[in-house]
């Protein structure tokens, strides 16, 4: 599988879902987009600021 580019804040956010396609790429989907149209389904990466970010307990600390 092809390494994906860093998604910034999304990589440590509980609302991120990684979606592979059939060609081996992986996309960073924002699940907040399902309930709030202010959030794009596939945000432009990397995301440096986001008011919707919430920590993913399984992810490393976000960059400071
Ligand atoms: S809420 Fe913000 S930081 Fe979290 S996945 Fe969506 S766009 Fe990324």
Q: What do you see in this structure?
A:
By secondary structure, this protein is mostly beta strands. It has one domain. Helices cover 0% and strands 16% of the residues. It has a two-stranded antiparallel ribbon with strand order 1-2. The structure holds iron/sulfur cluster. Iron/sulfur cluster binds next to loops.
Structure, briefly:
This protein is mainly β and 64 residues long.
Quickly list its features.
64 residues, mainly beta, two-stranded antiparallel ribbon, binds iron/sulfur cluster
User: Any idea what the shape is?
Assistant: globular
Strand order of the largest sheet: 1-2
**Helix content, binned percent:** under 10%
Average predicted confidence as pLDDT: 90
Indicate the proportion of strand residues: 15-25%
- What structural class do you assign from the helix and strand content? mainly beta
Euclidean distance between termini CA atoms: 29 Å
List of distinct ligands in this structure: iron/sulfur cluster
Largest sheet entry: 2 strands, antiparallel
How many DSSP-defined strands?
2
Low-confidence stretches: none
* Count of alpha and pi helical runs: 0
* Count of discrete structural domains: 1
Q: H/E series, N to C?
A: EE
Radius of gyration: 12 Å
Produce the secondary structure layout.
Elements: E1 16-20, E2 26-30
Antiparallel strand pairs: 1-2
């Amino acid at each position: 599988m092809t390494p994906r580019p860093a998604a910034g804040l999304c990589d440590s956010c509980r609302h991120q879902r990684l979606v592979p396609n059939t060609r081996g790429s992986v996309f960073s989907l924002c699940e907040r987009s399902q309930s709030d149209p202010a959030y794009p389904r596939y945000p432009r990466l990397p995301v440096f600021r986001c008011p919707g970010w919430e920590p993913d307990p399984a992810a490393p600390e976000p960059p400071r």
